[in-house]
Amino acid sequence: MENELFELLKNQRFDEGAERVEKYTPQALAEVLNELTQVDESLLVPFCRAIESDLLADVLVLLDKSLQQKIIGGLHDDELEKVMDEVSVDDTVDIIEDMPEALV
């Protein structure tokens, strides 16, 4: 992950971090989120809250199940609704298929 982005997130500047990744491809942002969990997992959900819902939706389907669960479990209901509205029905089924019942 680029150092400048990590510094923004570490300093709680999530909106600026989200602006920085607006032009990333979903695959590139998925890699950033994977790296972020290895560096400081506590920054993951606040950063995801700041990312545009349509971009986060595109990224969510690319992540492994455990990372999907962390993000989905950390979003507020209204935030999650906006993101899931952008996900196709097939991808939504794939995402919730293996989730713990309490999270679904």
Task: Note down, in words, how this protein is organized.
- It is built from eight helices and no strands.
- It has helices at residues 3-10, 14-21, 26-40, 44-50, 53-60, 65-74, 77-85, 89-97.
- Helix 1 (3-10) packs antiparallel against helix 2 and helix 5 packs across helix 7.
- The model has no long low-confidence stretch (mean pLDDT 88).
Rg, Å, rounded? 13 Å
Number of helices: 8
Unreliable stretches (pLDDT < 50, length at least 5) are none
Task: Tell me the total number of β-strands.
Answer: 0
Short précis:
This protein has helices at residues 3-10, 14-21, 26-40, 44-50, 53-60, 65-74, 77-85, 89-97. With 104 residues, it is mainly α.
Give short descriptive properties of this protein.
104 residues, 71% helix, single chain, mainly alpha, globular
SSE diagram, text form:
Blueprint: H1 3-10, H2 14-21, H3 26-40, H4 44-50, H5 53-60, H6 65-74, H7 77-85, H8 89-97
